[in-house]
Specification:
alpha/beta, 7-stranded parallel beta sheet, two-stranded antiparallel ribbon, 8 helices, 40% helix, 15% strand, globular
Amino acid sequence: MMGGVNDEPAPLTTDAVRLDGRVVVVTGAANGIGRATAVAAAAFGASVAVCDRDADGLAVLVDELARDRSVGPDRVHAEVLDVRDRDSVAAFAAATVARFGVVHGLVNNAGGTYRAAFVDSSTKGDRALVDENFTSVVDVTRAVVEAMGAGGSIVNVTSSEAFQAAPGFSVYAAMKAAVENLTRTLALELADRGIRVNSVAPDGIPTHGDAALAESVQAESRFRPPPVPPIGRFADPSEAASVIVFLLGDLARFVTGTTVHVDGGLHAAGGWHRI
């Protein structure tokens, strides 16, 4: 299934779509893209280690996976934690390895933001955005990567805002851009271990908390994003999860250091505009 760095690739079969026998860690798994990714990874055969600070949302996810006869409780490890807490992250990684013995995939999905003009944002608010959207990715990756071997895959969930101006979300967007750069750098640094590192940049996928942010933009901002993705509709979180599952598996075994824009064409169309 997974060979060494210089091994000849195995012939491609339909089994390459599957994640059987693999262990995938997903942060921010209680809602949205993280939840959809955990469900999809488990459906494709992986055992999953999931974390979130939303205890209720995480409990619903775990219950769903445990009741699924094709998954079951033995293939799920869950902990309530804040990814900004480095000690909790280290303990979660250690518990995951103790439970499953190895990690094959990591999805750095946890993140969040609020809307504020740059000059109005507080130092405390800035620090929270940096820690949640960038420092946590560094900490989780460092905690998990030593448990990965050749064939491992890291997928960082960023945003279309990493590639364009983001009025009202300046520090958040800057941190997502930092994760994009980190993705490319780690793809090179970890290549000799046989570990691939990619990112997914979603947009046009309404998730938990987006409605309030959209209302704030509509009411107060002089700028607007494109109203509808060029493809003509908004998407469901599962449509980002499907791309993440692809990047975790053998179908993407020669894909590293790149970004897949899962946005219905919004990146191609351009960014915010003044009204």
